[in-house]
Design brief:
about 425 residues, mainly alpha, 21 helices
């Protein structure tokens, strides 16, 4: 029925990213042509940001708790493979975030813009002060989780979500009621997020009109610079994965050639979901046992979002530099920790990048208005991020099979090992 309705209404078939680009063009035209009117459109973007911020805590809490619960269950079932997967996913994500932060500090793509209300931003206490690591780590543990959630404190919420999810995985049947409730909450937030993201073209038009009315061409230069820095970071990730692939005993070029179809499919569609069946089939045909692929790959598509994590760290640093804020060590650590945790288990959330970015910005006390500007270029960056996600999960399968494969035996083990060696053949 939905397909029929979409067929009757061509406008419904326009991809969201194209609508956002239209919103960008309309907003830019308004800002240049009628700057006084454009400057008055800021409330449209503000309303959008408030709506997005409204769902951050329930969405992150339910999604991360459920993801950790599933990981906890898999750890019991698959032991060594699950532990190795958990360790690698978080390590690879941390590397990608560190690359994003480093490139942001070097190139500072957002430094060319000065948001109109930058002078009114109240800096968080952490800026410009020496780091009290004892207080920093103690603040991670919430003394009142309800109060922390109400105050939009993300890191304590994430810590509680991880602990809660692991404990639910340990209590067996008794957890089913809670898991069902959290699953319902998460899907309700999905639906609400879909509605909010659907109006994002109007928010982009309003905020871009406001920014163009006050900034002019400085915004375009900064956004083009951001795209360039993003793809430079993705290239660094490509080299990093190639090095890991080589250490795992395979030819990186041949491995990339083998998975080129899902890699390009992910790039062209900016969707990891559509690549999963093809990706699984290719890996199994090239010798990785079904039990490894069926466990690692779907889990990786939820937990191993390396390209997305790099983009999220770039966005946070970009917005900070837009407001002329220098990120100190404590703030950089907060970005690293929050990004590594917050994007786990959120792969299927519509607009997940901006949900996670808003969570990180909230934990740092930074304004969220800049996100609407970033939506104008997110599609171009998302294509590269998705392709790197595909490659990262390929590397995860190869590495985890090598590290934990001794625990996995098949009657056709010899044949599988011979086929796996073909990944390294010239």
């Amino acid at each position: 029925m939905e397909h029929q309705i979409a067929a009757k209404s061509p406008r419904r078939g326009i991809p969201l990213w194209i609508k956002i680009m239209i919103g960008l063009c309309v907003g830019a035209a308004i800002g240049y042509t009628w700057p006084v009117f454009g400057a008055k459109l800021q409330p449209i973007g503000t309303a959008f940001i408030k709506a997005l911020k409204m769902i951050v805590i329930p969405l992150i809490f339910s999604a991360v708790t459920l993801a950790v619960y599933k990981m906890g269950s898999n750890l019991k079932q698959l032991g060594k493979l699950g532990i190795c997967a958990f360790t690698w996913f978080y390590f690879a994500t941390a590397v990608s975030v560190a690359i994003g932060i480093t490139l942001s500090l070097i190139f500072q793509p957002g430094a060319g813009m000065v948001m109109p209300n930058a002078q009114s931003v109240v800096l968080p206490d952490s800026f410009g002060k020496s780091v009290d690591y004892v207080k920093f780590f103690l603040d991670i543990i919430p003394d009142n989780i309800i109060a922390n959630m109400a105050a939009q404190k993300i890191i304590p919420t994430l810590f509680f979500s991880i602990c809660f999810g692991l404990c639910l995985a340990k209590i067996g049947e008794k957890a089913k009621v809670v898991i069902s409730l959290l699953d319902a909450v998460m899907h309700a937030m999905f639906k609400l997020c879909e509605g909010i993201i659907a109006v994002s073209p109007y928010a982009v038009a309003g905020i871009v009109a406001w920014v163009f009315a006050t900034q002019g061409g400085a915004m375009l230069v900064s956004l083009l610079k951001l795209i360039g820095v993003c793809y430079l970071g993705l290239l660094v990730m490509l080299v990093f994965f190639g090095f890991v692939t080589f250490l795992a005993g395979h030819n990186p070029v041949q491995v990339l050639r083998k998975v080129l179809e899902p890699f390009l499919l992910g790039f062209s569609t900016a969707s990891s979901e559509v690549t999963l069946p093809l990706h699984m089939e290719i890996l199994e045909k090239n010798g990785i046992p079904n039990r490894v692929v069926a466990f690692v790959l779907p889990l990786g598509y939820s937990f191993n979002l390396d390209g997305a994590a790099l983009g999220q760290s770039l966005y946070v640093c970009f917005i900070a530099h837009m407001y002329g804020l220098n990120l100190d060590v404590a703030s950089l650590v907060s970005i690293l920790v929050t990004t590594v945790i917050a994007n786990k288990g959120t792969a299927n959330i519509p607009g997940v990048t901006f949900v996670v970015v808003s969570a990180i910005l909230g934990s740092l006390g930074l304004p969220l208005e800049g996100m609407a500007v970033l939506m104008a270029v997110d599609r171009f960056m998302d294509m590269g991020r998705t392709a790197i996600n595909v490659l990262g999960n390929t590397v995860a399968c190869l590495l985890l099979y090598k590290v934990a494969g001794s625990d996995i035996t098949d009657e056709e083990e010899a044949a599988e090992m011979n086929a796996l060696a073909q990944l390294s053949d010239d």
